[in-house]
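Subject: complex prediction, re-run

Hi both,

The earlier run crashed halfway through, so I resubmitted it with identical inputs.
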Amino acid sequence: MQNTIPSKQGLLKTFLTGLRRRNITNKGMTLLERKRAIKFSADLAMASVRKEAKWSNALMADLSRKFQRKTVLPSKYRHVVSRGNKVSKGKRGARPRRAVKATAIAKCIVKKREQVLRRLVPGGKYMDECTLLDETLDYLQLLKAQVDVMRLLVKALE
Amino acid sequence: MAEIKSDNKWAATQWADKAPLFWQMVFRVFSSDLLLLINHLVPFLLVGSYNMTTSRSRITEAEINELISKLHALLPEARRRGTHRASSAKLLKETCSYIKSLHREVDDLSDRLSYLISSMDVTTSQAEIIRSLLR
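This time it finished cleanly. Structure:
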């Protein structure tokens, strides 16, 4: 069910177009702003290669939110927004101990690691386990390609 | 409702007539290029919650094994030496750590790129080419 290997030339082309649009050779930007612009264009290029994948759509949603925030909110309000996103953890009461079995421990470990994976892959919160594995495979392929493209660019500029 | 569709450039998108009236009015009011990004999302938004509850089909053992072997193939080859050491906990852990390391590398590379682009005054031929690409 999986798709073709991502072409690095297409990625590079989209990446450079995005960088040009953001006008990064402008000397007026600070290092941090330029770095954010580079990351943004890289993520956009990565997501636009695979438009049908779920992680790609979730990534685009995330990017469009960041894009809006950059143009709409002035920076002094950002801490208000980020504070609103934190979820307060409840108090953990003591639970009665049960006899521990190896399979139960294994399941618990797998569940915890699956939660970590859900946090890492964009859009992972909304997928069931089978799609999560599929999307992870796809996302890994593209992430590797993106890293290769950026390494190439850095090597060319040094 | 025809006049809403006619003077709206988003009517050209493939799901414009399927979108409820609310979305059409949103696009009419907030027509910006940002919505091109959202254009990809609407199928996902409309069926996003649908996926969790209805597609609970039985995953066969074979599919899981196939996915596991593919994931092994993608991870860096430091571990596997022929023997079948595919426990799912280890696999998930290696995947997570690999994704994290790739994220860190992207961060580091974008730092270096940002510095290099800002100090791109050296006149080598490659720098000239890249500078012309980026203008």
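The radius of gyration of chain A is 20 Å.

- K.
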